[in-house]
Design brief:
Elements (H helix, E strand, L loop, with lengths): L1 H23 L6 E10 L6 E6 L9 H9 L7 E4 L10 H8 L7 E3 L3 H4 L8 H8 L19 H10 L3 E2 L3 E7 L2 E7 L23 E5 L5 H9 L4 E4 L28 E7 L2 E7 L18 E9 L2
Parallel strand pairs: 1-12, 2-3, 3-4, 4-5, 7-8, 8-9, 9-11
Antiparallel strand pairs: 2-12, 6-7, 10-11
Length: 308
């Protein structure tokens, strides 16, 4: 009996331990990533940018709320929220509570698909099948049917009331210490809400710095932003792969971005132009897959410095 069942029982025990770690510890092991990006004109002081993404708030997530509130202690110059704040239609008040201290700082935001629609229960293996077939989001898949509609209008109104600038297929500006910062954003490409023709034209001529913001880093949006000459693109959506293999990395990105750039700082080329790209691994998960492995939840503090 021991020879026949010992190995399967051992595998089951290891799997159970891994699941307990992924759901019970790592999914709540919040981290802060710190990066330096040389994109400012010479003579401009460094700017500290806090990027938060993919909160996927579910009612009752007290540790996540407390951690997000604590980020205000970093005293960023401004905040960039790259979407997917919700994973529960009842969680809007808790998102606003979590982000309350950060709403005291200047900020900009775009929305992701989960701000508009509640998540659906699905087999995680489908992400692998869709990747193999070249299908991502609504890009080749059938439109979402029978989904829960989240009360995103409440988020939008609260962000706007706090002075955060909405960038869903829009341009916006912030003024900091006499500097003019310009932003160009897109609504979520994952559900085909992006309309680049509405914001095309490249960086603002009179701005000290122009940045690009989008939730899901689909190649068509990265190509457009880079070809137009934006020095830095900020995105989220990928969850860093969420379930990664140690010493190998992510298996999927949930979009057409390659896995080598699933999170962190990289570059993107289009025509003869090169942009920095930062993809946040985010700090939450879909409520139906509340696990992370070899990919802890995060926010990022980017220090923008002068170009070499």
């Amino acid at each position: 009996m021991r020879a026949r069942y010992g190995v399967p029982l051992g595998i089951t025990a290891v799997g159970a331990a891994g699941l307990a770690y992924a759901a019970g510890f790592e999914a709540r092991s919040f981290r802060l990533r710190r990066l330096t990006v040389p994109v400012l004109p010479q003579g401009m002081r460094p700017l500290r940018v806090l990027q938060v993404s993919d909160i996927h708030m579910v009612s009752g997530q007290r540790k996540k709320r407390a951690w997000l509130q604590s980020l205000a202690g970093l005293r960023p110059d401004f905040v960039v929220n790259t979407g997917d704040n919700l994973s529960d239609p009842e969680a809007v008040p808790e998102v606003l509570d979590a982000l309350g201290p950060l709403l005291e700082y200047p900020g900009v935001y775009v929305f992701g698909s989960n701000d508009y629609y509640g998540p659906k229960l699905r087999n995680p293996a489908r992400y692998l099948f869709e990747k193999a077939q070249g299908r991502h989001g609504l890009n080749g898949n059938a439109p979402a049917v029978g989904v829960v509609h989240n009360p995103w209008e409440g988020l939008r109104d609260a962000f706007d009331a706090a002075g955060w600038v909405g960038l869903n297929n829009a341009r916006g500006h912030l003024k900091l210490d006499g500097y003019e910062l310009a932003f160009t954003g897109l609504d979520d490409p994952h559900i085909k809400r992006d309309r680049y023709d509405r914001v095309a034209g490249g960086p603002e001529p009179g701005a000290d710095l122009s940045l690009a913001v989008v939730h899901a880093p689909y190649l068509r949006t990265l190509d457009a932003f880079t070809a137009d000459g934006y020095p830095l693109i900020l995105a989220g959506h990928t969850h860093g792969g969420q379930l990664c293999i140690p010493f190998y990395g992510a298996l999927v990105t949930n979009c057409d971005l390659d896995t080598s750039r699933v999170k962190g700082l990289s570059t993107h080329r289009s025509d003869s132009n090169v942009s920095y790209l930062h993809v946040s691994a985010g700090c939450g998960t879909n409520r139906y897959t509340p696990v992370r492995f070899a990919c802890p939840p995060e926010a990022t503090l980017l220090t923008l410095t002068a170009r070499d």
